[in-house]
Amino acid sequence: MTFSVVASDPATGDMGIAVSSCILAVGRAVPSARPGVGVVAVQARSRRGLGTTLLDGLASGGTPGSLVRRAAHSAEDADRQIAVLAPGGRVAADTGRGSLPVSGHLVGEGFSVQGNMLASSDVLPAMAHAFTGATGSLPDRLLAALTAGQDAGGDLRGRQSASLLVISGTPATEDDDGVRVDLRVDDSGDPVAQLRMLRNLQRAYDERDYEYLALFAPEGARELYAALAASRRGDREAAREALEAMRSRPGWSGWLASMAGDARLSAVSRLLG
């Protein structure tokens, strides 16, 4: 019913999971994560609270291997499928004897891919190959694996939801909750493709890619990013047009006035002066 990848980034210490399934809101059901503690995938017919139990086990000093072995010997979890990832890339996985076919898991250095009720036996090898061959940040490598799994057939029943969650390898603090990426597609005909689009949008926000946001941000905010993009490239006329379009909307003139101290908008104002 589900295919997923859990992995860590040896350079940053971040840990993450990407998952897709033909169920509603898989991001609510499969991933469990705690900054500085670990990431868990709980799939197939697993008990809903197993993810929290496994994270508690990691927090108490348990290893992924010992926690997976304990779950594997639990009779009530014969139909479960789990993967457990700890800081530093320690990872273990298990597929219960009662899991739906085609089912299985593959564990590599710092990562694991797992799935059940898959369209073919090609799904998991494709995911593992894509992850190990991908470059870039951990979220992008996780998405590369998920995309490869979908391209190889994915869930036998079809497509509905997907999720991408990346956390810090160190505990959360008051200044940093430890969540690097938390994106979900709950109901879509092509959830993995939609998840990639959301990842691109988040990257644009994080990197202040105003040119991209002027095209793909929500319609009501596009003029704002168009003005910022024009300001950055020194295009006075384009900035003026975007700013005037914003001022024409009810309530936006007051918001612009309140943002006079924002360095980005003051740059636009200087350009128009």
Given as residue ranges, the uncertain stretches (5+ residues, pLDDT < 50) are: none
The secondary-structure class comes to: alpha+beta
CATH architecture descriptor text of the largest domain? 4-Layer Sandwich
Provide the helix percentage: 40-55%
Characterize the biggest β-sheet.
Answer: 6 strands, antiparallel
Describe this structure in words.
The protein is an alpha+beta fold. It folds into two domains: 2-207, Glutamine Phosphoribosylpyrophosphate, subunit 1, domain 1, CATH 3.60.20; 210-272, no CATH class. It is built from eleven helices and ten strands. The protein has helices at residues 26-29, 50-59, 64-72, 123-133, 138-151, 191-207, 210-216, 222-233, 236-247, 252-258, 263-272; strands at residues 2-8, 15-21, 31-34, 38-44, 80-85, 91-95, 104-108, 111-116, 161-167, 179-185. The longest helix has 17 residues, at 191-207. It is elongated and about 65 Å long. 45% of the residues are buried.
Give me the secondary-structure topology:
Layout: E1 2-8, E2 15-21, H1 26-29, E3 31-34, E4 38-44, H2 50-59, H3 64-72, E5 80-85, E6 91-95, E7 104-108, E8 111-116, H4 123-133, H5 138-151, E9 161-167, E10 179-185, H6 191-207, H7 210-216, H8 222-233, H9 236-247, H10 252-258, H11 263-272
Antiparallel strand pairs: 1-2, 1-8, 2-9, 3-4, 4-5, 5-6, 7-8, 9-10
Helix pairs in contact: 4-5, 5-6, 7-8, 8-9, 8-11
In short:
This protein has helices spanning 26-29, 50-59, 64-72, 123-133, 138-151, 191-207, 210-216, 222-233, 236-247, 252-258, 263-272, and strands at 2-8, 15-21, 31-34, 38-44, 80-85, 91-95, 104-108, 111-116, 161-167, 179-185.
